[in-house]
Sequence to fold (128 residues):
Amino acid sequence: MVDDRVDKGMRTRRSVLGDAHVDKAEAAKTEFDSAFQTLITEGAWGTVWASDAISKRERSMITLALLAATKNFDEIPMHIRATVRTGATKQDVIEAFQHVAIYAGVPAANHAIKLAKQTYAEMEEQDQ
Fold:
């Protein structure tokens, strides 16, 4: 059962974050953080993100809002990049961050928007 969730988690993780990101993360995995990486793959990706109760687009919006609201800004660029694969639009993202501004604070939303703008600019530059 656990192996099934790890396998499903890895497939889901790759579908959302892309092979290049996951390959890089897997290459950086060590004995020290191996159990933690399995926990994330099984729990976050193999259970939560793998559920079809809501769409990946909606999960992107929720994830970005939660990251901003809890001031976990380091992962925002990764999840902005993932929107290409989840279907969350720039409009979806700004709407989520506007909710953050009202319910969790303007400074958190402002910083998240700054990171999103930088990440979108990087993505557009890479496409050229």
